[in-house]
Amino acid sequence: MKRDFRLLFPAAGVWCGAFCQSLLYSASITYQTLLLLVILVLSWVFRRRLLATFLVASLMGAVALSIHQSALQQDFFAQRVSKILTAQVQLSSDVRTINGQVRGDFRLSDRFFVEVRSSSIDGIAIKVPLLLYGNSELLDRIPGERIEVLARVTVPPGYSTVAGSLTQVGEVRTLAHASWIWRWSNSIRHDIKRSLAYLPADARALIPGLVIGDRSGQSPDLTAAMRRSGLTHLTAVSGANFAIVAALLLAVGRRLHIRGRALWIGIGVFLLLFIFLVRPSSSVLRAAVMTGVLLFAKSQGIRSSPIPALATAIGLLLLINPFYVRDAGFALSVFATSGLLFIAPVIEKYLTSRGLPSLLAQALAIPIAATTFCLPIVVLLSGELSVISILANFLVAPVIAVITVSGVALMMLSPLSTSVGALIGWAITPFALWITTIARSLSALPFAALKWPQSWIGSLATLLMTVLIFFIIKSRKRVLVFVPITLLLSQVALTFSPFVHGWIPRDWQIFQCDVGQGDGLVIKSKTNRAIVIDVGPDPRAIDRCLRLLRITHVELLILTHFHADHVSGLSGVLRGRLVDGVWISPTQEPEEEALRVRELLASIPTRTPLVGERFLRTDIAIQVIAVGEDTSPNDSSIAILAKVRGVTLFAAGDLEYEGQARARNVLQRLPPSQLWERAPIDVMKGIHHGSALQDPELIALLRPRVSIFSVGSGNPYGHPSPSALELYSKYGTVYRTDRDRGLALAKRGGNLVVVTAPPTLWAQ
């Protein structure tokens, strides 16, 4: 079939015009007018039809975006910034959750936000899109509901697709319930989740995403694994979903002897309902319009082609809502579809000509084409260049159609019978678990993704690199192909054992993990065994560190106190490892973190140690120097003095002046012993990440030869403080994890050896 590219010119013109106008948003009206005049003049000068069409379409795109931007009426909200007002709004999306992140000592509470459209603000009629942030009161709301809320308003600086943001400060009051179609679609979504309630956790979380694009049940680590392995698009409803649903309906309709326009109208109505069920996001609407164009062509007896359909979808949607021009979901959807239409057939033909079976060539061509076209956008969004996404997509491709077809049955039957829905869910489960296994396994590889500049330069470099590789493959100089392949394979090889562990001394005794703005220290007891002091804020970071050290058994876990940057990573330590016992602080604050820790530890022996208590193993002695009761969380930190095969260590959590004074008094009364002979301490973990609250007398008493500050890059607290750096550097060398990353320490003879993690091309 001859491919028709003519409609791509106006579609690309609308996109370019709207995009340029969005970049010039903060420029003066003079520059914006000048751009429009330039486009008009160029369209008049160039008489070539396609080029003139492109320029006129660019003008239409720029004008459409200007009209939409001015309709936001941001000046109205700018005059009310920080004021509390009464807003009547209608929800236009599902409520989404922002998981509370660890910020310094505390974990922020979960927040909820939803896209809304206002009907009145303080009694003034105004209809504009807004974002509403609030508490758990929003959770049970569905699209289409009209509510009234007291909120504080803010206006985003620069270009924005919303007039402003509202932050809830009062109760939410229902003004009107959602229309029947939203209630119907929401009911089906709940029925599907209810049917899957007893499935394994990963299947229960993933199947709603695969079937209806609902990712709300996914855990952060599964979401991260899907993103890192390049499989996130599977949980975003796309053209493939619409194509499979339409094909199923077509087969059923013909089986029931439905013919002619009635068949196409029936399919169109069902797909319209499907849009409400999966929610009308930009990528869904792109897929829906494209499918609709193809169905209309078939109903009229016209030979349909996907390329004009794609162009129609792009142009139509951007003219209706030009804000999609900088929507990542819309761009990824369009570029992935373009890859499948333009270069997948070329790649498939190339592979089959080299002797690959047709089915295998097609299975490889699809992920290569989609990934290649999306790379410039992906690196702009993530700052990573995935190495394993093509392989991951190739491995999961065989199960996608099965899940989608079964998903249609799940959507239709789960509202009728939860038991039947559960049966279908169990049938889908092995396929869903195959996807999560691939995602988790490949994303855990140390070479899963390359670091890449997260900028327009990085995006352009990716584009140029892709073009160069295709040029090399197409050229007759085949030897050039081996240059990038050899470089990549050599980098991959260096991530395997023993290379990845090669920088860590075999006789390491103490290891400071790079856990960001938090603490995570490991003391080696035996092969694969260790004592761990604090676990940092991120489960993935401490788990990655312990896997690097091949630690499978934790003989003692010391949680110095319950601030989130010291205990929130606990699940990472417990992942596949045996923990013999845990020491915890007596001050159970913050209460929510203490409760979370107790729930995770469950049956693991846990207690608060006493000052002077010792933990003894062969060549290891640990003594508690301070543990405060009835005091602040920081000053309740467990401080320990340790000797590890000749290396002396002092670690004191986040003790402040009072706690440090108590620790100093205990140390001063401590008689010289094999644990500490009053000589300078070999290693000291910088107290409270190197805050300004340091006791000079305590540091002078210990005189650390090596000091380590566990801090996050660019942390907002200024850790380590200049005064702490100056104080510790009087006595020895200072290391910090934001610059040196992980550190391994060993003692050979009388010499202390410190090895820092080498730089790497690979993203963590």
Radius of gyration: 30 Å
N-end to C-end Cα span: 46 Å
Average pLDDT figure: 86
Number of helices: 26
- Strand percent estimate: 15-25%
Largest sheet: 9 strands, mixed
Oligomer: single chain
Q: What percent of the residues sit in helical stretches (DSSP H or I)?
A: 40-55%
Shape: globular
Structural class: alpha/beta
Find the count of extended strands (DSSP E, 2+ residues): 27
Unreliable stretches covering 5 or more consecutive residues: none
Brief overview:
The protein is of the alpha/beta class and 764 residues long. The protein contains 26 helices and 27 strands.
Structural write-up:
It is built from 26 helices and 27 strands. It is α/β, with parallel strands linked by helices. Strands 12, 13, 14, 15, 16, 17, 18, 26 and 27 form a 9-stranded mixed sheet that branches. Strands 19-20-21-22-23-24-25 form a 7-stranded mixed sheet. Helices cover 47% and strands 18% of the residues. Strand 14, helix 19 (539-548) and strand 15 form a beta-alpha-beta unit. Helix 14 crosses helix 15 (389-413). The mean pLDDT is 86.
Question: How would you describe this structure in keywords?
Answer:
alpha/beta; 47% helix; 9-stranded mixed beta sheet; 7-stranded mixed beta sheet; 18% strand; 27 strands; 764 residues; globular
Helix and strand layout, with pairings?
Layout: H1 8-23, H2 29-45, H3 49-71, H4 74-78, E1 84-91, E2 96-98, E3 102-103, E4 106-107, E5 111-121, E6 124-125, E7 129-134, E8 146-154, E9 165-176, H5 180-195, H6 201-212, H7 220-228, H8 239-255, H9 260-278, H10 282-299, H11 306-320, H12 328-342, H13 344-353, H14 358-382, E10 384-386, H15 389-413, H16 418-443, E11 449-451, H17 456-474, H18 482-493, E12 510-512, E13 521-526, E14 529-533, H19 539-548, E15 553-559, H20 564-567, H21 570-574, E16 578-579, E17 582-584, H22 591-601, E18 606-607, E19 614-617, E20 620-626, E21 639-644, E22 647-651, H23 657-669, E23 683-685, H24 696-702, E24 706-709, H25 722-729, E25 733-736, H26 737-740, E26 743-748, E27 751-756
Parallel strand pairs: 7-9, 14-15, 15-16, 15-17, 17-18, 22-23, 23-24, 24-25
Antiparallel strand pairs: 1-5, 1-8, 2-5, 3-4, 5-6, 5-7, 8-9, 10-11, 12-13, 12-26, 13-14, 19-20, 20-21, 21-22, 26-27
Helix pairs in contact: 1-3, 1-11, 2-3, 5-9, 5-16, 6-15, 6-16, 7-16, 8-9, 8-10, 8-15, 9-10, 10-11, 10-12, 11-12, 12-14, 13-14, 14-15, 14-17, 15-16
